[in-house]
Amino acid sequence: MEIAVVDDEKMIREHICDLIEEQQPGNHIEACVTGEALLASGKRFDIVFLDIQMEGMNGIEAAKKLREQQEDTVLVFITGRKDHVFDALDLYAFQYLLKPIDEDKFAEVLERAVREGRRKKERRVLFIKSRNLTLDQSEILYIESRAKKVEIHTVRQTVEIYAAMDELEGQLGEEFYRCHRAYIVNMDCITEYDNESITLTNGDRVHLTKKKYGEFVKTYMWHLQNGGVSGV
């Protein structure tokens, strides 16, 4: 799972990262010093541990912006004060932990957060506002940019919409990879690849940018090793 730890205090940030690695090994953990850094990463996180009182953008503000981009992220606020609890509830926070961190309590919350994150990943959807259409992300094979339009190729149909690839990429789960400026592929639907193209389960081939080949292979291997599905 993709987990972010956001806290401007280095000791606390590193302590939380260490606890996650000890208690739930095998996840990908990204540490951020500020809320701005979290949002600027552009990554989709399954779980975010977020300090509330930070320099610059505080945790509540960062969470509001994150919710606009990633509605299904499991949010766990970490703070030294109790007076933000209602703000946290308004943002559908999963848990509100107080500093100093109690390791037993953290282990309990982390285990439940991981379960919740996995449950949400089982059926993650892509909502197309312009069409009031909801697509099951697991059924999306790939997305193709054609001038000002985008074609979403699924196992059942091809949906044509006006949208920006960057916007769609930000809404998709970690199983999707931007292999070319005009293509995003579902790594669970890959059957074959070389240094120029990727073949999907329906037989369609899409372009793979040569300069991204090494990064793609590394990302795809990590995906398979961490619970991804091979279409081969």
Structural class: alpha/beta
Name the average pLDDT.
Answer: 88
Strand order of the largest sheet: 2-1-3-4-5
Q: What fraction of residues sit in β-strands?
A: 25-35%
User: What is the total number of structural domains?
Assistant: 2
**CATH class categorisation of the largest domain:** Alpha Beta
Percent in helix: 25-40%
Measured distance between first and last alpha carbons: 23 Å
- The tally of strands reads 15
Question: What's the CATH H-level superfamily name of the largest domain?
Answer: Response regulator
* Series of secondary-structure elements, N-terminal to C-terminal: EHEHEHEHEHEEEEEHEEEEEH
User: What's the shape?
Assistant: globular
Q: What is the second-level CATH architecture of the largest domain?
A: 3-Layer(aba) Sandwich
Tell me the radius of gyration: 19 Å
Uncertain residue segments: none
Helix run count = 7
CATH topology (level 3) name of the largest domain? Rossmann fold
Taking the sheet with the most strands, its summary is:
5 strands, parallel
General description of the model:
The protein is of the alpha/beta class and 232 residues long. It has two domains: 2-122, Response regulator (Rossmann fold); 125-225, OB fold (Dihydrolipoamide Acetyltransferase, E2P), CATH 2.40.50.1020. Helices cover 33% and strands 31% of the residues. It is built from seven helices and 15 strands. The chain has helices spanning 10-23, 35-40, 59-69, 85-90, 103-122, 165-171, 213-225; strands at residues 2-6, 28-32, 47-51, 74-79, 95-98, 125-128, 133-136, 140-146, 149-154, 158-162, 176-180, 183-186, 190-193, 197-200, 205-207. A five-stranded parallel sheet has the order 2-1-3-4-5. A five-stranded antiparallel sheet has the order 10-9-8-12-11, with helices on one face. Strand 6 and strand 7 (133-136) form a beta hairpin. The radius of gyration is 19 Å and the shape is globular. The protein starts with a strand and ends in a 7-residue tail after the last helix. The mean pLDDT is 88.
